[in-house]
Each structure stands twice: as structure tokens, then as C-alpha cells.
Write a structure and sequence with these properties.
alpha/beta, 3-stranded mixed sheet, 18 helices, 11 strands, AS_sf, Amidase_dom
């Protein structure tokens, strides 16, 4: 029987190795995960549905993660016949009709699925405080949020319930929680991961599924296993010809040229903690022989964020129509949370021409970043502008909700200012992550700093499309240094 400390010391790769060698069974791992969950989840609210008995009885494949317990994010990572709420009170009781392709691939990798994690309604926020399930809390300090939208997932890994967890990223939803909870969070290149069935373009290509992990090698091994050329997908990227897990430890063949910026792309403030975290990494890279240079990428961040919100509004408006058709009635503001309502109202007035021009703005930004990467291997920024916000800080009050309802009704002809103002407090915390979603580039948040308030904050690296190997090599190099700051914590342990 594994002790708690033994369980917490293992990453997913090591767990699978022990199962393969007969040192432990997958049932022992599931039981250890369950015991840890029972200890910390009442405080953290990271896990919303359990399937531990299913996991104990699950036949697992002999893949690289054979027998390892894994939690799924309850928004797009579905198992047929099981709950899929997407954090929405309107979806309470909704049952998935099929396994997602990602879940099928994860099953092939050998994972056993132990439950589902909390997420904000439809993944729209960088915090995890849905009305349906209540807030998830940060294991480093339970008065703070773990971020979002993969906040339940981040809290589950940071507290040691599982070593790696299902997550997704449509605007930073892997990288923001990674920064706030001290984890490694990689968003792969657009077209690298499986999608669907029934969805060919997640948020028009902005969103992708992957994981959060404590070790770089876990993400590298899984990236090898999940990368796919999927005929029915809207976007494709050629398979990597090497092996990520092997190549991440290879030295760089020549010094890297690294661009960086510590300025918010939307002109908001950036904390000294975020700047210090970035500077620590830059100093380390210079001592390793790499060349670093501050660079302005030339992209109008405010204008690009407006296009991001316009996409959100179109997606939420279409989703609302689907739900209304299914229910046979119109939705009201009482049915959905305020962000969903305002976005879906705004989307009703967006013309096809406006939506098409908006997507063209994504392509323009991608072209500018391609120019940057013609000259520089990597582009570094803070992962977030601040450490994690307090629980409740970014949730709108009832009075604010009523104001927003009136504002979007009044300004439907020109909704972007309303959308921008609604999200600005949240955007101030995380202005750096959305760019990679719109350009399709891979990006990763790396846990390299603990701020004076005792909370972690990460540094983000972006590479050109298809170059996840560079990000993994950089992260592995940092992981071997004194900068890496990953520990298992829980609210009850620390506070």
C-alpha cells in the first residue's frame, strides 16, 4: 500500500513504470488518489463528480500511462452516459451521448478515469466560480482562486489528487491556472490535438485540449501519444517526427535568440512579481549562453482582444440558439451566468461580414508573430500579470449584473465596448495568454517564481507553430535549475 508521501512524490510516468513492473497496481493508485481527494477536496472543491469505482474496475491499456489515475475537465472531455455540465446550471443533469475523441486517445494511453473537475460556465472565465458548483480554491492559499477555466484541474494536480489532469485552453485556460498554482501548462499548436466528434473547430481554432502536469516529461510523453492527424478536423498540423520525451533533454544545437516583453499588450499594469519572474528566467538563459532582447511585437493588443471577444459572442450566441431549440423556449438572464448572457446577446447582432473580418485580424496577428519568429526562436512574457486573485474578486455582483444586462440591451448595435469593459478586471490579471490562441502557436507557462505573498507566478514562452519541442527543451532546462517551483500543497497543509 502506497503511503500518501510516496504517492505525492510520483509523477505519472513513474507511476506507470511501477504498474508495468508489478510494484503497484492501478487499484492501489486509484485508492491513493481517492484518499488524497477525500482529504483536500472538501476545502478545494476541485473535483465535482467521482467515478472511483469505475476506475478501480477499469481495464487499462498497456500504454505509457498504464494504470495512472486521471481526472477529466467537465466541459469537452466526455464519457458516454456520464455527466457533462460545462459548469452551467442550465446543463445540470445533462448526459454525454458519446466519448470524445480525446478521451478515446487518453484511454489508449492507459489512463483510468477517476472523475471530473470543476470549470466556470462554458469555460468563459479565468477563474473557476460557477454558480452550479461553487468556487474552486487555490491549494497555495484557499482565499485565492486557482484561475480558470481549468481551475478545478489545476487545484487537483497542485494538491496532489492526481499527477496530471485533463485541461483545455481557449484563451489561456491551461496557462493561467498553471501560473496561479505552480504547474507546467502547455497549449499545443492548433491542429495538434484530437477534437470532436461533432466539433471540427473549437472556438474557431482558438481552443485546444491537453493537460496540466507537475513534471515536463509527463506532458512530453503525453504529447507524443496524443498528437494526431484527424481527417474530420478543421485544422491539421504534421506530426512531429522526433520523440518529444527523448528530445526535451537534448542540448540546444546553438544558442537561442529569445525575444521578450514585460509590458501588457493591452496597456494594463504588470506587477513587480511578474517582472521579477521573467527577469530571473532571462538572467538564467543569458548565463546559459542564449541571447535575449526586448521586442515590441507590433500587434495592437486592445484591438485583437476585441476580436477575441467578438468570436466569444458569436460562439455563445450559436450555443444559446442550440440550447433554446433543445428546450423549446427562449432563455432568460436567470438561466445563464452574466458573461454568457451578455456575450450571447452581443452575438445576435454580429454580421457575417464583421465575423469574417474579425477572423482575418487573427491571421494578421499570426503573420506578425511569424515575422518575430523569423528572427527569434522564442518569445517570452510573464504568464500572468499578477498572482492569483482572491475568491470572489472577479465575480460580478448582482448590481453589476443588472447594469450589464441594461448596457448590452442599450448597446447591441455596438457591443464591443460593453464586452471589453465587462472582462477588463479579469483581463488585467491575464493579458498575455490570448495571443497564442488567436495565432495558433504553442505556448507554455513555467513555474519559476514564488511572490512575496507566498503565491506562485509563471513565465510564458511562445514558439512558432509546430515547435513544441523548443518549449519542452526550455522547460526541461529550467526544471533542472534552481528556478523551478513545483510542490504538492493543500489548503489544510498550508493555512
Amino acid at each position: 500500500m502506497l503511503t500518501e508521501n510516496q504517492y505525492l512524490s510520483l509523477d505519472a510516468t513513474e507511476m506507470a513504470k511501477m504498474v508495468k513492473n508489478g510494484d503497484i497496481t492501478h487499484v492501489e493508485l486509484v485508492d491513493a488518489s481517492t484518499q488524497r481527494k477525500e482529504k483536500v477536496n472538501p476545502t478545494l472543491n476541485a473535483v465535482i463528480y467521482d467515478r472511483n469505482e469505475h476506475a478501480r474496475n477499469q481495464q487499462h491499456s498497456p500504454g505509457p500511462f498504464s494504470g495512472v489515475p486521471l481526472l477529466l475537465k467537465n466541459i469537452s472531455q466526455t464519457i458516454k452516459g456520464e455527466p457533462m455540465t460545462a459548469g452551467a446550471k442550465l446543463m445540470k443533469g445533462n448526459i454525454a451521448k458519446q466519448d470524445s475523441y480525446l478521451v478515446q486517445k487518453l484511454r489508449e494511453q492507459g489512463f483510468v478515469f477517476t472523475g471530473y473537475t470543476n470549470t466556470p460556465e462554458f469555460g468563459l472565465k479565468n477563474i473557476t466560480e460557477p454558480e452550479l458548483f461553487g468556487p474552486t480554491r487555490n491549494p497555495w492559499n484557499v482565499n485565492h482562486s486557482p484561475g480558470g477555466s481549468s481551475g478545478g484541474s489545476a487545484a487537483a494536480v497542485a494538491s496532489g489528487i492526481v499527477p496530471m489532469v485533463g485541461a483545455s485552453d481557449g484563451g489561456g485556460s491551461i496557462r493561467i491556472p498553471a501560473s496561479f498554482t505552480g504547474l507546467f501548462g502547455l497549449k499545443p499548436t492548433r491542429g495538434r490535438m484530437p477534437v470532436g466528434p461533432g466539433i471540427g473547430r473549437q472556438w474557431q481554432g482558438a481552443a485546444t485540449d491537453f493537460v496540466l502536469s507537475r513534471t515536463v516529461r509527463d506532458s512530453a510523453v503525453l504529447l507524443d501519444g496524443l498528437q494526431v492527424l484527424q481527417p474530420e478536423a478543421a485544422f491539421h498540423w504534421p506530426r512531429y517526427e522526433g520523440v518529444y520525451a527523448d528530445d526535451m533533454s537534448k542540448p540546444f544545437s546553438k544558442p537561442l535568440r529569445i525575444a521578450f516583453s514585460n509590458r501588457s499588450p493591452v496597456g494594463t499594469e504588470v506587477s513587480e512579481d511578474a517582472k521579477e519572474a521573467l527577469q530571473k528566467v532571462l538572467t538564467f538563459l543569458e548565463t546559459e549562453g542564449h541571447e535575449v532582447e526586448e521586442v515590441d511585437n507590433g500587434i495592437d493588443g486592445v484591438a485583437l482582444m476585441e476580436q477575441y471577444y467578438l468570436m466569444n459572442s458569436g460562439e455563445m450566441s450559436a450555443l444559446r440558439v442550440n440550447i433554446e431549440e433543445s428546450l423549446g423556449r427562449s432563455l432568460t438572464p436567470d438561466d445563464i451566468e452574466i458573461e454568457t448572457w451578455v456575450l450571447s446577446e452581443a452575438g445576435q447582432t454580429v454580421s457575417a461580414a464583421t465575423f469574417t473580418r474579425s477572423l482575418a485580424a487573427w491571421d494578421t496577428a499570426a503573420a506578425k508573430m511569424a515575422e518575430i519568429h523569423d528572427a527569434y526562436d522564442l518569445y517570452l512574457t510573464p504568464a500572468t500579470a499578477y498572482t492569483a486573485p482572491s475568491v470572489g474578486e472577479l465575480t460580478h455582483s448582482q448590481a453589476e449584473r443588472q447594469t450589464l444586462i441594461r448596457a448590452i440591451e442599450r448597446e447591441k448595435h455596438d457591443p464591443l465596448p460593453v464586452l471589453y469593459d465587462m472582462f477588463l478586471p479579469s483581463l488585467t490579471y491575464s493579458p498575455f495568454s490570448q495571443l497564442a490562441n488567436l495565432t495558433g502557436q504553442p505556448a507554455a507557462s513555467m513555474p519559476v517564481h514564488i511572490a512575496e505573498n507566498g503565491l506562485p507566478i509563471g513565465v510564458q514562452a511562445m514558439a512558432s507553430k509546430g515547435n513544441e519541442d523548443l518549449l519542452l527543451r526550455l522547460a526541461h532546462q529550467l526544471e533542472q535549475s534552481d528556478l523551478w517551483e513545483v510542490v504538492c500543497v493543500s489548503g489544510s497543509d498550508r493555512n
